[in-house]
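Hi there,

I know you've been waiting on this one. I reran it after we fixed the sequence typo, so this is the corrected version. Both the input and the resulting structure follow.
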Amino acid sequence: MQLDVALVSFRTQHGAVSAFSASPDDAPWKQEVAFVERHHNGRVAVRGTFAGHYVDIDESDHTSEPGTVEGALTGALVGAVFGLGLPGAAFGFVLGGAVGAVVGRPTEVDKEPETLVDELRAAVRKGGSAVVLLAAPEHVDALLAELAGTDGEVTRRSLSAEQTAALESELKSTPIASSGPSQTGAATGPQKLR
């Protein structure tokens, strides 16, 4: 199956979500999109569906444990050296730890689709956002028709079989996306525990 990818980027961090929320609930592409926000510091947040996998990445949540320790100790030392006493050292400890956690190199625990994140970072301007859809060409057509009246900038391309395979390989460690609530679950309602 041929897949197309469309990225509709907006100048503001909430532009993509605002444009998406105005679209009809029964749109065929509604369960296949992802949202990208690129913060002013360059870090990226990605949430949504790519190639049938759910991706939830927020680089702003990443902190550096070694940076926290180093920053806290440096801050405490600076507070003590400048004769601010115990209160200055305590304040320096807290402030240095907070700065070190953000500025230091993050320690990663979860494997993330780095190539995908890097490509999205390059495609979305700082302080901006985007709606991304990787789907059959007719679903991409429907998304673009729905968002045509917005101020979003459109980038679209078809993926080769090799590009699709590489993306699927990169996403294999992410969970399979849900297609929404099942009719069975909705029909039977809550179950009592025995």
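Quick highlight: The chain has a mean pLDDT of 74.

Best,
R. S.
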